[in-house]
Design a protein that fits this description.
There is one protein chain. This protein is of the alpha+beta class and 446 residues long. It has helices at 10-31, 50-69, 96-109, 143-149, 154-190, 211-220, 222-234, 240-262, 269-284, 293-303, 307-313, 323-331, 335-341, 345-360, 365-378, 383-389, 391-406, 410-423, 428-443; strands at 35-40, 74-82, 85-92, 116-121. Strands 2-3-1-4 form a four-stranded antiparallel β-sheet, sandwiched between helices. The longest helix is centred in the middle third of the chain and has 37 residues, at 154-190. It is elongated, with a radius of gyration of 26 Å.
């Protein structure tokens, strides 16, 4: 992406137009199929900024998705990112009329479509014309009339363009972050085998729930995760602690929705806390940084700084009621709070690297996810394991997980699962961190 903001001179624009025409002709001769020429409709001499570039990237994603939905394929493509703006040229194996129909849909029916110029050039080199006139960005009248009479100043058009880009891109990003969070929860529960945990094979050590309970729960949380991302965006300039504080009430409401979806079963209470923090951390960061797991987790650490001392260390042992409070009072283990304010080191240094290593080596999602879980279990004091089996059993489980990971064998993991079920053990905290590992992996693709 070109991050240097410059004004495009008239000579630059004329040269770019000439180059575009030449490239179109060359691609027509080379590909023999209709073309889509995509650029941004931006008023004024500044044609390219990071914000405008984000608009182009989202428009390209929409265009390519619709081409696939119509059964088409992009056979050739060229893209440029210059002071004169972002441009894309795509040779597609669909009829020109079909392409014009789908590009008009994008221009007229998507929130950012008013800023897109999507021209379709037939195999004969002729541009297909629209059946309806485009409307003005500001007043809704025919755009050509406003342009001809200079109804609106360049400054007004630029302000309207910027406001539209910010509002719609933020909405798109919050939706994408929320969907990614739910996708990660669904991947976590589907990974099979997972010792003592619900998966596709069995309910582990949780006879009151199954994979469908988790699916219902995950579906109920999508709006919450979108809210977390939006809160992160809205408080991005504030102290990180303010973002965490703003998440508390939505988190309480998310728990209510979870229990409603599961008939009172606690499936994702831990994930509401940890995944919610990561969604808000993504919201606080600039879009180009959200693909960096270390930066996301650094932001999460800043948001939760001091949470263990505030919520656990200051607690009188006699007043410890929850499992987390009791474990901290007895062993000084801070659980998910300590993991969060340390920047989720079990995820950053163990879970995510193991997950991506196994995926890169060609292992299945099940194998990579299982290895990720073992890596996390080997390197954290899972408080769910301590609550169900005691500290010694948790430490033994960590040593066993490390051994299984070094000589990875799914049959041995199945045997481990059978034993965990018999002993009522469940590494639920590690399962939440497995979901976070998937989330960070998917955010690299966002």
């Amino acid at each position: 992406m070109n991050t240097e903001i410059k004004e495009a001179a008239l000579s630059d624009m004329l040269e770019a137009r000439e180059m575009r025409s030449w490239r179109q002709q060359e691609m027509l001769e080379k590909g023999g199929h209709p073309l889509v020429s995509f650029s941004m409709n931006i008023a004024g001499p500044i044609k390219n900024t990071p914000l405008i570039h984000r608009g182009f990237v989202n428009g390209r994603r929409e265009l390519l998705a619709r081409i696939r939905a119509y059964g088409g394929h992009v056979l050739l493509q060229e893209e440029t990112d210059a002071v004169t703006g972002c441009e894309g040229l795509y040779s597609v194996d669909l009829k020109a009329e079909t392409l014009k129909n789908l590009t008009t849909q994008i221009e007229e029916r998507t929130p950012l479509g008013r800023l897109f110029d999507l021209d379709v050039i037939g195999c004969n080199g002729e541009k297909l014309e629209r059946q309806t006139a485009r409307t003005c960005l500001i007043c809704g009248r025919p755009a050509k009339e406003c342009a001809r009479s200079r109804t609106h100043s360049v400054q007004q058009l630029q302000a309207a363009t910027k406001a539209l880009l910010i509002d719609e891109l933020n909405a798109i990003d919050t939706k994408r972050i929320g969907e990614t969070a739910v996708r990660s929860l669904l991947y976590e529960v589907c990974i099979t085998p997972k010792p003592g945990l619900v998966d596709r094979l069995d309910s582990g050590s949780h006879p009151d729930m199954d994979i469908y309970t988790f699916m219902s729960s995950a579906a109920s949380l999508q709006d919450y995760f979108k809210t977390c991302a939006r809160i992160g965006m809205e408080t991005a300039q504030d102290d990180p602690a303010n973002t965490l504080q703003a998440l508390r009430q939505p988190g309480i409401e998310a728990e209510v929705h979870m229990y409603e979806a599961t008939d009172g079963i606690n499936t994702h209470k831990g994930a509401i806390f940890s995944m919610g923090i990561l969604c808000a951390a993504c919201g606080r960061l600039q879009p180009q940084v959200r693909t960096d797991p270390a930066r996301i987790l650094e932001e999460a650490a800043a948001m939760t700084k001091g949470i263990t001392a505030r919520e656990l260390a200051s607690l009188d042992p006699k007043d410890a009621h929850t499992a987390g409070q009791k474990i901290y009072a007895q062993y000084g283990i801070g659980g998910i709070r300590a993991e969060a304010e340390a920047g989720f080191p079990a995820v950053l240094h163990h879970g995510l690297p193991t997950l991506e290593k196994f995926l890169l080596e060609g292992h299945t999602n099940d194998e990579a996810g299982c290895a990720c879980l073992l890596s996390i279990l080997a390197n954290t004091a899972d408080t769910n394991m301590i609550r169900r089996g005691g500290l010694e059993k948790q430490q033994s489980a960590s040593r066993e997980a490390a051994q299984l990971l070094s000589s990875f064998d799914l049959n041995a993991v199945h045997q481990m699962n059978a034993r965990y079920i018999q002993e009522h053990l469940s590494p639920g905290g590690s399962a939440d961190l497995l979901a976070l590992s998937w989330f960070l992996h998917f955010m690299k693709e966002a």
